[in-house]
Specification:
Strand content: 15-25%
Strand order of the largest sheet: 1-2-4-3-5-6-7-8
Helix content: 40-55%
Number of helices: 10
CATH topology: Rossmann fold
Largest sheet: 8 strands, mixed
Distance between the termini: 79 Å
Structural class: alpha/beta
Number of domains: 1
Number of strands: 8
Radius of gyration: 26 Å
Oligomer: single chain
CATH superfamily: Alpha/Beta hydrolase fold, catalytic domain
Order of helices and strands: HEEEHEHHHEHEHEHHEH
Amino acid sequence: MTIGKHVFKFFFMKWLVILVILSECSMAEDINQWHPITLANSQQINIYSDITKTTYNIRVFVPTEPPMENQQGYPVAFLLDGDVSFIYAQQAALRLLSRKVLAPVIIVAIDFANQSNHLSRTELRTKDYTPSIYEDSYFKNNKQLSGGADKFLAFVEQELKPWLAKKYSINPAKQALYGHSYGGLLVLHAFATSIASFQYYYAASPSIWWDNNYVLKEVEQRLQQLTNIPAQPKQTTPLILRTSVGSLEQTADDTDMIRNNIIKKRAMVDNVEQLAKVLKIMPSSVVDFSYQVLPDEDHGSVQAIAINRFIMDFSRLK
Protein backbone atom coordinates (compact mmCIF):
# COMPACT_ATOMS: atom_id res chain seq x y z
CA MET A 1 0.00 0.00 0.00
CA THR A 2 1.49 3.36 -1.00
CA ILE A 3 1.98 6.27 1.40
CA GLY A 4 -0.78 8.18 -0.41
CA LYS A 5 -3.26 5.39 0.26
CA HIS A 6 -2.24 5.29 3.91
CA VAL A 7 -2.81 9.04 4.20
CA PHE A 8 -6.20 8.78 2.45
CA LYS A 9 -7.29 5.95 4.72
CA PHE A 10 -6.18 7.86 7.81
CA PHE A 11 -8.12 11.01 6.93
CA PHE A 12 -11.16 9.00 5.75
CA MET A 13 -11.37 7.15 9.07
CA LYS A 14 -10.85 10.40 10.96
CA TRP A 15 -13.73 12.10 9.15
CA LEU A 16 -15.91 9.03 9.59
CA VAL A 17 -15.36 9.16 13.36
CA ILE A 18 -16.15 12.90 13.33
CA LEU A 19 -19.38 12.30 11.39
CA VAL A 20 -20.46 9.60 13.85
CA ILE A 21 -19.75 11.90 16.79
CA LEU A 22 -21.65 14.79 15.16
CA SER A 23 -24.57 12.49 14.41
CA GLU A 24 -24.72 11.31 18.02
CA CYS A 25 -24.51 14.90 19.24
CA SER A 26 -27.33 15.85 16.88
CA MET A 27 -29.49 13.01 18.24
CA ALA A 28 -28.70 14.05 21.80
CA GLU A 29 -29.64 17.63 21.02
CA ASP A 30 -32.86 16.45 19.35
CA ILE A 31 -33.83 14.52 22.49
CA ASN A 32 -33.52 17.67 24.57
CA GLN A 33 -35.31 20.00 22.14
CA TRP A 34 -38.92 21.19 22.27
CA HIS A 35 -41.04 20.33 19.24
CA PRO A 36 -44.57 21.38 18.21
CA ILE A 37 -47.37 18.99 19.11
CA THR A 38 -49.31 17.72 16.11
CA LEU A 39 -52.89 16.48 16.42
CA ALA A 40 -53.86 13.55 14.23
CA ASN A 41 -55.77 14.32 11.02
CA SER A 42 -55.87 18.02 11.92
CA GLN A 43 -54.91 21.28 10.25
CA GLN A 44 -55.43 24.97 10.97
CA ILE A 45 -55.56 28.16 8.93
CA ASN A 46 -56.41 31.82 9.52
CA ILE A 47 -59.28 33.30 7.50
CA TYR A 48 -60.26 36.96 7.38
CA SER A 49 -63.97 37.79 7.21
CA ASP A 50 -65.09 40.74 5.12
CA ILE A 51 -68.44 40.56 6.93
CA THR A 52 -67.27 40.79 10.56
CA LYS A 53 -63.89 42.46 9.83
CA THR A 54 -62.27 39.83 12.05
CA THR A 55 -59.59 37.17 11.46
CA TYR A 56 -60.52 33.68 12.64
CA ASN A 57 -58.37 30.65 13.33
CA ILE A 58 -60.04 27.63 11.76
CA ARG A 59 -59.07 24.16 13.01
CA VAL A 60 -60.26 21.22 10.90
CA PHE A 61 -60.31 17.49 11.67
CA VAL A 62 -60.83 15.22 8.66
CA PRO A 63 -61.11 11.46 9.29
CA THR A 64 -59.09 9.02 7.23
CA GLU A 65 -62.27 7.00 6.66
CA PRO A 66 -64.42 7.95 3.66
CA PRO A 67 -67.97 9.26 4.14
CA MET A 68 -70.66 6.66 4.67
CA GLU A 69 -72.08 5.32 1.42
CA ASN A 70 -75.59 6.53 2.19
CA GLN A 71 -74.45 10.12 2.72
CA GLN A 72 -73.61 12.80 0.17
CA GLY A 73 -70.26 13.73 1.69
CA TYR A 74 -69.14 14.13 5.31
CA PRO A 75 -71.43 15.53 8.01
CA VAL A 76 -69.85 18.67 9.48
CA ALA A 77 -69.74 19.64 13.17
CA PHE A 78 -69.05 23.35 13.68
CA LEU A 79 -67.73 24.31 17.12
CA LEU A 80 -67.37 27.77 18.66
CA ASP A 81 -64.50 28.73 21.00
CA GLY A 82 -62.21 26.44 19.05
CA ASP A 83 -59.22 26.98 21.34
CA VAL A 84 -60.98 24.85 23.98
CA SER A 85 -63.54 22.81 22.07
CA PHE A 86 -61.38 21.41 19.27
CA ILE A 87 -59.10 19.16 21.32
CA TYR A 88 -62.08 17.64 23.16
CA ALA A 89 -63.94 16.98 19.91
CA GLN A 90 -60.90 15.68 18.02
CA GLN A 91 -60.05 13.20 20.76
CA ALA A 92 -63.67 12.06 21.04
CA ALA A 93 -63.85 11.50 17.27
CA LEU A 94 -60.62 9.48 17.18
CA ARG A 95 -61.74 7.31 20.09
CA LEU A 96 -65.21 6.65 18.73
CA LEU A 97 -64.01 6.04 15.18
CA SER A 98 -61.56 3.43 16.46
CA ARG A 99 -64.46 1.67 18.17
CA LYS A 100 -66.48 1.89 14.95
CA VAL A 101 -69.45 3.45 16.72
CA LEU A 102 -69.14 6.76 14.90
CA ALA A 103 -69.94 7.82 11.36
CA PRO A 104 -66.95 9.72 9.90
CA VAL A 105 -67.51 13.43 10.49
CA ILE A 106 -65.52 16.58 9.72
CA ILE A 107 -64.98 18.86 12.73
CA VAL A 108 -64.54 22.59 12.14
CA ALA A 109 -63.61 24.66 15.20
CA ILE A 110 -63.78 28.45 14.94
CA ASP A 111 -61.58 30.61 17.14
CA PHE A 112 -60.21 34.16 17.14
CA ALA A 113 -56.78 34.58 15.55
CA ASN A 114 -54.00 36.69 17.04
CA GLN A 115 -54.57 39.26 14.30
CA SER A 116 -57.79 40.16 16.15
CA ASN A 117 -56.04 40.94 19.42
CA HIS A 118 -56.85 44.64 19.36
CA LEU A 119 -59.85 43.40 21.36
CA SER A 120 -59.71 41.06 24.33
CA ARG A 121 -61.10 37.56 24.04
CA THR A 122 -64.12 38.51 26.15
CA GLU A 123 -64.79 41.49 23.89
CA LEU A 124 -64.48 39.38 20.73
CA ARG A 125 -66.89 36.77 22.09
CA THR A 126 -69.32 39.48 23.14
CA LYS A 127 -69.14 41.03 19.67
CA ASP A 128 -69.74 37.83 17.73
CA TYR A 129 -71.87 35.64 19.99
CA THR A 130 -74.53 37.99 21.39
CA PRO A 131 -77.77 38.61 19.46
CA SER A 132 -78.66 42.07 20.80
CA ILE A 133 -77.11 45.28 22.10
CA TYR A 134 -77.11 45.10 25.87
CA GLU A 135 -75.20 46.63 28.78
CA ASP A 136 -74.09 43.94 31.20
CA SER A 137 -72.78 45.42 34.44
CA TYR A 138 -70.33 42.54 34.97
CA PHE A 139 -68.41 43.16 31.74
CA LYS A 140 -67.59 46.68 30.63
CA ASN A 141 -68.21 48.12 27.13
CA ASN A 142 -70.77 45.46 26.24
CA LYS A 143 -73.16 48.05 24.83
CA GLN A 144 -70.55 49.24 22.34
CA LEU A 145 -69.48 45.76 21.29
CA SER A 146 -72.52 43.49 21.58
CA GLY A 147 -75.10 42.40 19.06
CA GLY A 148 -72.98 40.97 16.23
CA ALA A 149 -74.38 37.43 16.17
CA ASP A 150 -76.13 37.82 12.82
CA LYS A 151 -72.94 39.05 11.15
CA PHE A 152 -71.00 36.13 12.61
CA LEU A 153 -73.59 33.61 11.37
CA ALA A 154 -73.42 35.30 7.95
CA PHE A 155 -69.64 34.76 7.99
CA VAL A 156 -70.15 31.05 8.69
CA GLU A 157 -72.84 30.66 6.04
CA GLN A 158 -71.53 32.90 3.26
CA GLU A 159 -67.75 32.74 3.67
CA LEU A 160 -66.65 29.75 5.74
CA LYS A 161 -69.01 27.08 4.40
CA PRO A 162 -68.29 27.80 0.71
CA TRP A 163 -64.55 27.77 1.45
CA LEU A 164 -64.86 24.37 3.16
CA ALA A 165 -67.03 22.98 0.36
CA LYS A 166 -64.24 23.68 -2.15
CA LYS A 167 -61.75 21.65 -0.12
CA TYR A 168 -63.78 18.74 1.27
CA SER A 169 -66.65 16.48 0.31
CA ILE A 170 -69.38 17.90 2.55
CA ASN A 171 -73.02 16.97 3.07
CA PRO A 172 -75.00 20.24 3.31
CA ALA A 173 -77.97 18.40 4.82
CA LYS A 174 -75.96 17.07 7.80
CA GLN A 175 -74.50 20.06 9.63
CA ALA A 176 -74.39 20.86 13.33
CA LEU A 177 -73.51 23.86 15.51
CA TYR A 178 -72.10 23.58 19.04
CA GLY A 179 -71.43 26.39 21.51
CA HIS A 180 -70.86 26.89 25.24
CA SER A 181 -71.89 29.84 27.44
CA TYR A 182 -72.04 32.87 25.10
CA GLY A 183 -71.52 30.28 22.36
CA GLY A 184 -74.60 28.41 23.61
CA LEU A 185 -76.50 31.69 23.43
CA LEU A 186 -75.47 32.01 19.79
CA VAL A 187 -76.59 28.43 19.08
CA LEU A 188 -80.08 29.17 20.42
CA HIS A 189 -80.19 32.41 18.42
CA ALA A 190 -79.20 30.47 15.28
CA PHE A 191 -81.91 27.90 16.01
CA ALA A 192 -84.48 30.69 16.29
CA THR A 193 -83.39 32.72 13.25
CA SER A 194 -81.26 30.59 10.88
CA ILE A 195 -82.92 27.19 10.88
CA ALA A 196 -82.00 26.49 7.26
CA SER A 197 -78.28 26.73 8.07
CA PHE A 198 -78.03 23.70 10.38
CA GLN A 199 -80.03 20.59 11.16
CA TYR A 200 -78.58 19.93 14.61
CA TYR A 201 -77.98 22.41 17.46
CA TYR A 202 -76.22 21.86 20.78
CA ALA A 203 -76.22 24.66 23.38
CA ALA A 204 -74.06 23.88 26.42
CA SER A 205 -74.66 26.10 29.47
CA PRO A 206 -76.28 28.76 27.27
CA SER A 207 -76.28 32.35 28.53
CA ILE A 208 -80.06 32.63 28.22
CA TRP A 209 -79.96 35.44 30.80
CA TRP A 210 -78.48 37.82 28.21
CA ASP A 211 -80.61 40.95 27.70
CA ASN A 212 -83.45 39.79 29.96
CA ASN A 213 -83.80 36.36 28.31
CA TYR A 214 -83.83 37.88 24.82
CA VAL A 215 -83.11 34.55 23.10
CA LEU A 216 -85.93 32.79 24.94
CA LYS A 217 -88.36 35.24 23.37
CA GLU A 218 -86.78 34.56 19.96
CA VAL A 219 -87.25 30.82 20.38
CA GLU A 220 -90.90 31.30 21.41
CA GLN A 221 -91.54 33.41 18.32
CA ARG A 222 -89.92 30.84 16.06
CA LEU A 223 -91.94 28.00 17.55
CA GLN A 224 -95.10 29.99 17.01
CA GLN A 225 -94.18 30.39 13.34
CA LEU A 226 -93.50 26.67 12.99
CA THR A 227 -96.89 25.92 14.53
CA ASN A 228 -99.09 28.56 12.87
CA ILE A 229 -97.85 28.88 9.29
CA PRO A 230 -99.49 26.11 7.22
CA ALA A 231 -97.77 27.23 4.01
CA GLN A 232 -94.36 26.46 5.46
CA PRO A 233 -92.46 23.78 3.49
CA LYS A 234 -92.92 20.38 5.04
CA GLN A 235 -90.06 19.33 7.34
CA THR A 236 -89.04 15.82 6.28
CA THR A 237 -86.87 15.29 9.35
CA PRO A 238 -87.15 17.13 12.66
CA LEU A 239 -84.73 19.83 13.70
CA ILE A 240 -82.62 18.58 16.58
CA LEU A 241 -81.90 20.77 19.59
CA ARG A 242 -79.91 19.59 22.60
CA THR A 243 -78.90 21.59 25.63
CA SER A 244 -77.16 20.85 28.91
CA VAL A 245 -76.12 22.70 32.06
CA GLY A 246 -74.10 21.82 35.14
CA SER A 247 -75.99 21.39 38.40
CA LEU A 248 -73.42 23.59 40.17
CA GLU A 249 -73.86 26.54 37.82
CA GLN A 250 -76.52 27.97 40.08
CA THR A 251 -74.72 27.20 43.35
CA ALA A 252 -73.67 30.23 45.38
CA ASP A 253 -70.47 30.66 47.37
CA ASP A 254 -71.13 32.53 50.61
CA THR A 255 -67.65 34.08 50.60
CA ASP A 256 -68.18 36.10 47.41
CA MET A 257 -71.33 38.20 47.53
CA ILE A 258 -70.76 39.86 44.13
CA ARG A 259 -70.44 36.50 42.42
CA ASN A 260 -73.45 35.20 44.35
CA ASN A 261 -75.59 38.03 43.03
CA ILE A 262 -74.48 37.35 39.47
CA ILE A 263 -75.20 33.62 39.79
CA LYS A 264 -78.62 34.33 41.24
CA LYS A 265 -79.46 36.84 38.52
CA ARG A 266 -78.31 34.63 35.66
CA ALA A 267 -80.17 31.53 36.90
CA MET A 268 -78.40 29.19 34.48
CA VAL A 269 -80.24 26.01 35.51
CA ASP A 270 -83.65 27.65 35.88
CA ASN A 271 -83.36 29.23 32.43
CA VAL A 272 -82.54 25.92 30.73
CA GLU A 273 -85.54 24.34 32.43
CA GLN A 274 -87.68 27.28 31.29
CA LEU A 275 -86.46 26.69 27.73
CA ALA A 276 -87.51 23.05 28.11
CA LYS A 277 -91.02 24.14 29.10
CA VAL A 278 -91.26 26.36 26.04
CA LEU A 279 -90.11 23.59 23.71
CA LYS A 280 -92.33 20.96 25.32
CA ILE A 281 -95.28 22.18 23.26
CA MET A 282 -93.59 21.28 19.98
CA PRO A 283 -94.23 17.84 18.51
CA SER A 284 -91.05 15.76 18.22
CA SER A 285 -91.70 15.40 14.50
CA VAL A 286 -90.92 19.13 14.15
CA VAL A 287 -88.32 19.73 16.88
CA ASP A 288 -86.54 16.83 18.55
CA PHE A 289 -85.50 18.46 21.85
CA SER A 290 -83.86 17.15 24.99
CA TYR A 291 -81.86 18.64 27.84
CA GLN A 292 -79.73 17.43 30.73
CA VAL A 293 -78.69 18.86 34.08
CA LEU A 294 -75.27 17.29 34.58
CA PRO A 295 -74.67 16.48 38.26
CA ASP A 296 -71.65 17.92 40.10
CA GLU A 297 -70.48 19.97 37.09
CA ASP A 298 -69.85 23.71 37.05
CA HIS A 299 -69.74 26.22 34.20
CA GLY A 300 -66.20 25.25 33.20
CA SER A 301 -66.13 21.51 33.79
CA VAL A 302 -69.33 20.88 31.84
CA GLN A 303 -67.60 21.49 28.48
CA ALA A 304 -65.72 18.19 28.17
CA ILE A 305 -68.85 16.14 28.87
CA ALA A 306 -71.05 18.25 26.62
CA ILE A 307 -68.70 18.07 23.63
CA ASN A 308 -68.28 14.31 23.97
CA ARG A 309 -72.06 13.82 24.03
CA PHE A 310 -72.48 16.23 21.13
CA ILE A 311 -70.01 14.34 18.91
CA MET A 312 -71.52 10.97 19.87
CA ASP A 313 -75.10 12.06 19.31
CA PHE A 314 -74.62 14.00 16.09
CA SER A 315 -72.36 11.48 14.36
CA ARG A 316 -74.68 8.59 15.16
CA LEU A 317 -77.43 10.13 13.07
CA LYS A 318 -78.33 7.97 10.10
